[in-house]
């Protein structure tokens, strides 16, 4: 079992930066692929970024490439999302996710575990 808690959301101006963090608990954390999804008001959830268990492979949605960076520290049981050059369209609730199967996380978008989410609002 994996429990996930996000933090770091807030209100920022367009062009600003935020760093989201996800604290995980559970002895199997290091073997899980980790990722971030987001859901804007009135829209479907969408994939943002993912990182495999080793931290050597990452994958990003086209909309955030070059602006967002995902990282993890298995020793500290954390995964982070550095968000730079934020745009109003980045406004959403951001969810941390985990799954032992990489493809299920980044392709199917149906991870086994979810956090409660943290709100990110980018003003124009």
Structural commentary:
The strands form 2 sheets. Strands 2, 4, 5, 6, 9, 10 and 11 form a 7-stranded mixed beta sheet that branches. Strands 1-3-8-7 form a 4-stranded antiparallel beta sheet, with no helix packed on it. The protein contains 1 helix and 11 strands, in the order E-E-E-E-E-E-E-E-E-H-E-E. By secondary structure, the protein is mostly beta strands.
Short description:
The chain has 124 residues and is mostly beta strands. It is 6% helix and 49% strand. The chain contains 1 helix and 11 strands, in the order βββββββββαββ.
Which features does this protein show?
7-stranded mixed sheet; mainly beta; 4-stranded antiparallel sheet; globular; 124 residues; 6% helix
Summed up, the helix count is 1
Distance between the termini: 40 Å
Rg (C-alpha, Å): 13 Å
Number-wise, the strands total 11
User: pLDDT average, as an integer?
Assistant: 94
User: In percent terms, what proportion of residues is strand?
Assistant: over 45%
Shape call: globular
Describe the oligomeric state of these chains in a short phrase: single chain
Q: What is the secondary structure topology, with strand pairs?
A:
Layout: E1 3-7, E2 10-13, E3 18-25, E4 33-39, E5 46-51, E6 58-60, E7 68-73, E8 78-83, E9 92-99, H1 102-108, E10 113-114, E11 118-123
Parallel strand pairs: 2-11
Antiparallel strand pairs: 1-3, 3-8, 4-5, 4-9, 5-6, 7-8, 9-10, 9-11
């Amino acid at each position: 079992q994996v429990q996930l808690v996000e933090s770091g959301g807030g209100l920022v101006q367009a062009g600003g930066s935020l760093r989201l963090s996800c604290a995980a608990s559970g002895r199997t954390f290091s073997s899980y692929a980790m990722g971030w999804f987001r859901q804007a008001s009135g829209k479907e959830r969408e994939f943002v970024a993912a990182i495999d268990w080793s931290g050597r492979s990452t994958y990003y949605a086209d909309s955030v490439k070059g602006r967002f960076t995902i990282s993890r520290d298995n020793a500290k049981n954390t995964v982070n999302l550095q968000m730079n050059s934020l745009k109003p369209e980045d406004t959403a609730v951001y969810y941390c996710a985990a799954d032992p199967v990489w493809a299920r996380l980044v392709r199917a978008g149906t991870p086994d575990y979810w956090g409660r989410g943290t709100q990110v609002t980018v003003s124009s």
